[in-house]
Amino acid sequence: MATNNGDVLMLEAAPEATKPWASAANAEVIDALPYIDDDYGNPLIKAEVDRLVEEEMRRSSRKPADFLKELPPLPKFDFENCPVLGKEYERVRAGKPPVRIDFESRYKLELPPASKKNDDAAWKQYLQKNQRSLQQKMIELENLEMMSKQGPELWRQNNHRLEVFLTRMQKLAQEQNEEIEKVNRERKYHQQTTAYELNALSQEWRQLCMKNMEIQSACTVLDTQIDSYKREAAERGWNLEEKLESVKPLRPQ
């Protein structure tokens, strides 16, 4: 609590935690009564609040560029279990275009070079290679046929699972929204119920402040009169100190 000559100026905020994200106990508490506070609707008060906010933002050491520096660093992706994905990730980071798939060479039969046209071993090697490629294409065709037959049902099952998951998520979201709405209703009820007491206390505080100001003003007038009487007594040569000592104090009856 900051003081100046015994007068309370403001309540200092708690020291900032080193890791405010680590615990909910370090969360900032906003003291506001939004359901009954209508002062912000006043243009003069709104202008003053906006001015204080802008001033606080100018004096703040936290800039928009480093508002996430208190959070833990993001994990580094090494792609140890998927080197292909790692290469694609690096390609995207470097801004390089994707590698085009050469379908012509993929489905083209390979022949031995001209220098080995009369080599039976070379022809046999390329024949076995083309046979393996042909067998792979046949397997791919069988997979496509199976997909054309079984694929629609698999997609329907997958869509059904997604719909079930979506329904569950929507239910959870609805429950959360209902909890939020319940909290808001309770806050509104308590704030509106307490508004009468707060207004009465606020009015009483204003009246006490006015009384204190009136008492302080009356004391100031009395001090001025006393000083005036002292000056007048000094001009007449009266010794007020002796007279005041000779006066007996009044005793309560």
UniProtKB/TrEMBL annotation:
User: Please, which domain of life does this record's source organism belong to?
Assistant: Eukaryota
* Pfam families hit by this protein: BCAS2 (PF05700)
Q: Which InterPro entries match?
A: SPF27
Query: What keyword terms does UniProt attach to this protein?
Result: Coiled coil, mRNA processing, mRNA splicing, Nucleus, Spliceosome
Asked whether the UniProt record includes Nucleus among its keywords, one would answer yes
Subcellular localization, as worded in the UniProt entry: Nucleus
Q: Which residues form a coiled coil?
A: 124-193
Q: State any GO CC term.
A: precatalytic spliceosome
One biological-process term from Gene Ontology?
mRNA processing
Q: What family does this chain come from, according to its entry?
A: Belongs to the SPF27 family.
Name this protein carries in UniProt: Pre-mRNA-splicing factor SPF27 homolog
Q: What is the lineage of its organism?
A: Eukaryota, Viridiplantae, Streptophyta, Embryophyta, Tracheophyta
| Name of the coding gene | LOC108807058
